[in-house]
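Section 3.1: Structural characterization of target chains.
Under the original work plan, the team committed to producing a structural model for every single-chain target entering the pipeline before any wet-lab resources were allocated. The record below documents one such target. The sequence was received from the expression subgroup and is listed exactly as submitted; it comprises 274 residues.
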Amino acid sequence: MLDPLAETADRLNALDPYAGFDVRPEPDAAWLPLERFVDGGHADAVLELLERRHGRRNVAGSMLGAVLAEAVIGGTVAAIMLDERCPDPAAANLALRIHEEGYLERRAVRGSALAVRPGDPAAAHPASTVVDDLDAWWAARAVATLAPLLEAVRARAPFGLRLLWGAVADEVAGAAIRVAQLAGRDPDPSWDRAQRLVDALAAQAPVPLTRGAPFPVAWPGGRHLFQVRGTCCLYYRSALESGLRDESCCSTCPLRDDESRHRLLRDYLISTTA
């Protein structure tokens, strides 16, 4: 019987390697087990790397929170959106690779365990757990993994828990509409599906969640849906930027005005298809 999680991972990686993940990677010192990320010293090491790069401890804390959100949320939400299957987001089942500049280079699941809905052809596979409420199953396990990690970030950097969890909610919606559009699906129902996942996360999270908003952009290639994030990541305060908010804010930052946002995102779409 084929490994259903590997099948889903292969489909995601074929769409875009950044949207996917590895399954049962070969042992390699570059893979950092998430369950040892804090007590193994990796959180401190990556935070110091990010502070050296960005020049501010609060920006480093924001960036580290985003790395952890991508490691736990990005691949699991992508699998749900593509196939309504979810790899186990328990800390013991996840690993990540960090680029020398401090961003997430690659994520992996260390086993084949996954949750599926009743009626999924993969339900008979020995690695599958059949659940009636996939969203609640995912949210409970994702929050159990992220809560101590984000607490550890907050203890080390002046970037609040509400902001860290806001970035998690933004990752849910961003990953969902990204995968939907890569797969050629209508992003609007996918946005609605993502909000149900955020609802499930909000029921488990230790703080209220901020939420982003959909932002459609018309361009010569058609229409593309982006997200205006609910939480600013503070990147405009990085030493790598000018420090001027209007010039340095991300195109999807909630601090940016819609006119400049539309122009930047339209130019981005045109440049990536040129």
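Helices lie at 4-15, 42-54, 57-83, 134-156, 161-182, 187-202, 245-248, 258-273.
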